[in-house]
Design goal:
single chain, globular, mainly alpha
Length: 493
């Protein structure tokens, strides 16, 4: 089976999407319990701590978790075992160095981070304690890059499930007994458990070897040089999230941050199952063919087709079910986030056709282009959410994110067209013309007061969207083609 065939894409989208589905079910229980135990204010406080730590991690990890995947993938594709093992040792050595750097920086900058995040220094001690999380994340990121680059997708899937299970059994008891005062301890133990699980699996495949000699470490200069762009990108991305949450904290409350975070996580996590294969499977495949324009275009367009057609019925079902999902997944206190969540759905449609193209600069090692495109999005994102929230609270924020996502998609596709000769297949516009009206109808349906009309039409829209996707996939996937043929035969007299 070709690595760029529709069957391969669907197989690994199904594998990693299925794993993500299991994670979602376990995460559903965890998020529900956390939401009930801590409420919107507690969720908001977790969000602020997490955003600040992610910003520090992004600033100090040298982008190794992303840039290293390209180098490992290329060596692995050549079946050069010696080169692969040498790169792995190099990545681990650099990851250890960045872990130490990040921890020390967080220790020294704790008062400043507290002031930036909360507007005062009373949380300085908390950030001192959280400094070890930055180090744990650097090591975990390096080992994850190794597993991705060497195509250890099933191990990654297992790690993903174990991480979610550990998060459930670590955080919930802590929040039950200690409430909001247990947040910092929980975050530390979660990061530690993720590092131990990931390194345990990674070391079993490639035993730990470190070399900190200057001449050896200098071989990692190309990886670090590319990674610097990821560092700046990570700072921009994490900084954008922190700015938005700090803005909501000052203009509104911790409760508003909790509502915003709940809506954002609900869409990016639960509705993003179809994207779970992007970084683990698609990115290494694209990196391996990045010098061939025709193969790169084929790889990207096929990934877009599969992602969009798989995610569309899910989003229609999500729109119909969202009045039940919010109180089910969180609590009735989070129902104020429903207006943002419904509009946010359309940003996920756009994400399905944007994300595969956005990986192209990464696959080519074009750090300047990647950073430019990321900076454009982050500036628009912060400005859009601030303006949208100012005029229409959470509804305006959701609309802003969708508009910004659409603009960003056009910018990325236009840039890739000029810079890399990328061509977006015309069939993708046809698929969008068929699926988006169904999604829009489902959105409008959410405003009806008739329960009978709502559920009967809602179910019909989910079925219609599913049939459209099956019909469009029938000629691309043998299994779908046979299924479609059987359905046609049953309808015939």
């Amino acid at each position: 089976m070709s690595k760029n065939s529709y069957s391969h894409i669907v197989k690994y989208t199904g594998l990693l999407g299925g794993v993500q589905g299991i994670n979602i079910m376990i995460g559903l229980v965890r998020n529900k319990l956390v939401a009930v135990l801590l409420g919107p204010s507690g969720v908001g406080l977790i969000s602020l701590f997490t955003s600040a730590i992610n910003l520090l991690a992004s600033a100090t990890n040298l982008g190794i978790a992303t840039s290293a995947v390209k180098n490992i993938s290329e060596a692995y594709e050549r079946a050069d075992r010696i080169a692969v093992e040498r790169i792995i040792r190099l990545i681990r050595s650099w990851s250890m160095l960045t872990a130490i750097m990040g921890t020390l920086l967080c220790l020294m900058a704790a008062p400043f981070i507290s002031m930036l995040t909360f507007g005062h220094t009373s949380h300085s001690l908390h950030f001192v304690m959280l400094s070890v999380v930055v180090g744990f994340m650097a090591i975990t990121g390096g080992e994850t890059a190794i597993l991705k680059g060497t195509r250890r997708l099933r191990r990654l899937a297992t790690i993903s499930i174990l991480n979610v299970v550990s998060a459930l059994f670590i955080s919930v008891p802590i929040y039950y007994f200690f409430g909001m005062s247990g947040i910092v301890t929980s975050l530390i133990l979660l990061a530690l458990s993720q590092m131990l699980i990931t390194t345990g699996y990674s070391y079993s495949v490639y035993p730990l070897k470190l070399t900190l000699r200057r001449d050896f470490m200098s071989e990692g200069t190309p990886i670090v040089r590319l990674g610097v762009a990821f560092v700046l990108s990570g700072i921009l991305g994490s900084g954008a999230d922190l700015l938005i949450r700090s803005f909501l904290s000052r203009e509104a409350s911790l409760e508003m941050i909790g509502l915003y975070t709940a809506s954002y996580m609900l869409m990016m996590t639960y509705a993003g199952v179809a994207f779970s294969a992007m970084e683990s499977d698609f990115f290494p495949r694209l990196s391996a063919v990045n010098n061939n324009v025709e193969e790169s275009n084929l790889t990207i367009n096929r990934q877009i087709e599969v992602a969009f057609l798989l995610v569309s019925p899910m989003l229609v079902a999500f729109l119909v079910a969202v009045p039940m999902l919010l109180p089910l997944l969180y609590s009735s206190k989070f129902m104020a986030a429903i207006s943002m969540t419904k509009i946010f759905v359309f940003a996920i449609y756009i994400r399905a056709v944007k994300l595969p193209v956005a990986y192209l600069p990464l696959a080519k090692g074009d750090s300047a282009s990647f950073l430019l495109l990321e900076a454009i999005y982050d500036v628009l994102y912060v400005a859009g959410v601030v303006v949208g929230f100012h005029y229409a609270q959470l509804t305006g924020a959701g609309l802003a994110i969708t508009i910004v996502g659409t603009i960003d998609w056009m910018v990325i596709v236009g840039y890739a067209y000029k810079k890399y000769s990328y061509r977006l297949d015309k069939s993708i516009f046809r698929y969008m013309a068929l699926q988006l009206p169904i999604g829009l109808t489902a959105y409008l349906l959410t405003f009806t007061s008739s329960q009978w009309l709502y559920w009967s039409v809602g179910v019909l829209l989910v079925v219609l969207s599913t049939l459209v996707s099956l019909y469009l996939l029938r000629g691309k996937l043998p299994v779908i083609g046979r299924l479609w043929l059987k359905l046609r035969r049953r309808r015939e007299p």
